[in-house]
Specification:
Order of helices and strands: HHEEEEHEEHEHEHEEEHHEEHEHHHHH
Distance between the termini: 25 Å
Shape: elongated
Number of strands: 14
Helix content: 55-70%
Radius of gyration: 33 Å
Strand content: 15-25%
Length: 418
């Protein structure tokens, strides 16, 4: 029965070529759009979450110009004149048992770096000798700062991978001079490529300067007083102690600053949750848009099956007269609808996976300099099964009405309609 139904379906398709092609095309476009959008969205989520997970298990406490009103989504200008200090860093190390390490972090802002005839705008970060181990960020050439560099106010810098490529074209930069503003500094190290961040916000686009040097040779407007820092980076002893460490740090800071809530705590986990929510919302909206062609293809199946029922009234009446049950007629027409839908699904699956793979190759090349996570393959069993399942669901959903109409027909109705 199943084979006869499938063969009959192909005869119907070949007898109405244009109508059949348009019906299959609608399903093909719908399935390919859903598969391509779903695959690209899933791959993008993997890349972003993998990149963020590499920074997970740590957090920072910082003073922002705007702070969130507790219990609401409203932000107001920070009314407090409090700032983090180097003493806060030491207090966190001494009084927070769940904290493995804490480092001061400050910024000099964007500066135009010059190396002979080449120049590049980059953000300058002020750090200490603990920064490299805290970030698990190694140098590929030269070295990072040491305690002597900070104590002697050395005019030295460590540059990110992209800065090295732009200003020195990948050649030896150790001992070379780097100028920004009216000051000259010596490059002592080049950091390995991280792929974290994007564009100008990439870690690889940074220039690192000793905290003490930056605080001494640049005015207070740029970096604030010597003991003041913009934020403090904190690493718990284990990822499981993250929330406990946040509570301990908050207690210490509030105690030292007269219980003034002038700060905000940022963690990669919070950013990761936000990114996942945004990606999920974008993927849902995109899928809803992509479903429209699928619905149009389903309407095409509904149309062709209604026409098929009308054209085959004598056959239905004859089968009923010789004892065919209603469920047998219903199954036959449902199989025909599913077969038409699956033909479109197979073509849609091939087109969708090809499109996702092509776009994935382009995005992978575009993002190679921003993320060190390879773009996942679009071809996977989940995508294949979901494409085929959607095709079957469309066939069943839009083929049920014509199938039910045929199943309810009686031999008398068939003779009358004939």
């Amino acid at each position: 029965m199943i084979i006869d139904s499938i063969l009959m379906t192909f005869r119907i398709l070949s007898a109405n070529k244009l109508r059949s092609v348009l019906t299959v095309l609608g399903i093909t476009v719908g399935i390919s759009a859903v598969i391509a959008i779903g695959s690209i969205g899933s791959s993008a989520k993997v890349v972003l979450t993998t990149s963020l997970n590499k920074q997970a298990g740590r957090f920072s406490i910082r003073r922002n110009d705007y702070i969130k009103v507790k219990g609401t989504e409203k932000y107001i200008r920070n009314p407090y004149r409090e700032f983090m200090t180097m003493d806060d860093v030491q207090a966190i190390k001494d009084n927070c048992p769940s904290v493995a390490n804490a480092i001061p972090i400050d910024e000099l802002g964007w500066r135009n770096m010059q190396a002979k005839e080449r120049s590049k705008p980059t953000p300058v970060s002020l750090t200490t000798e603990e920064f490299a181990s805290f970030e698990n960020w190694r140098t590929i050439f030269g070295r990072h700062f040491n305690r002597s560099d900070l104590e002697l106010l050395s005019r030295v810098v460590v540059i990110g991978f992209d800065v090295w490529q732009s200003l020195f074209r990948g050649k030896d930069a150790i001992g070379k001079e780097l100028k920004f503003g009216d000051q000259r500094y010596t490059v002592i190290g080049v950091m390995e490529k991280t792929g974290q961040g994007a564009g100008f916000d990439s870690k690889d686009n940074q220039v690192l300067l000793p905290m003490s040097t930056g605080k001494t040779y640049f005015n207070n407007t740029s970096v604030g007083p010597k003991n003041q820092v913009r934020s403090i980076g904190i690493k718990p002893k284990s990822p499981e102690l993250l929330q406990q460490a946040q509570r301990e740090v908050e207690i210490v800071v509030r105690r030292r600053h007269n219980d003034k809530p002038f700060y905000e705590i940022d963690s990669v986990e919070g950013i990761l949750k936000l990114v996942n929510n945004i990606l999920f919302a974008v993927q849902i909206v995109s899928m809803l848009i992509a479903i429209f062609p699928l619905v149009i293809g389903g309407i095409g199946i509904l149309n062709i099956m209604l026409v098929s029922v009308a054209e085959r009234v004598p056959e239905i009446g004859l089968r009923k007269a010789v004892g065919a049950k209603p469920y047998q007629i219903r199954i036959q027409f449902l199989l025909e609808a599913i077969t038409i839908s699956l033909i479109g699904s197979v073509f849609g699956l091939l087109l969708g996976l090809s499109t996702a793979t092509f776009l994935g190759d382009i995005l992978s090349k575009m993002m190679a300099s921003q993320f060190d996570t390879p773009w996942p393959s679009a071809v996977n069993m989940q995508a294949i099964l979901s494409g085929l399942m959607m095709g079957m669901m469309v066939g069943i959903s839009f083929g049920f009405l014509p199938a039910n109409q045929a199943a309810r027909m009686t031999p008398i109705d068939a003779i009358r309609n004939k």
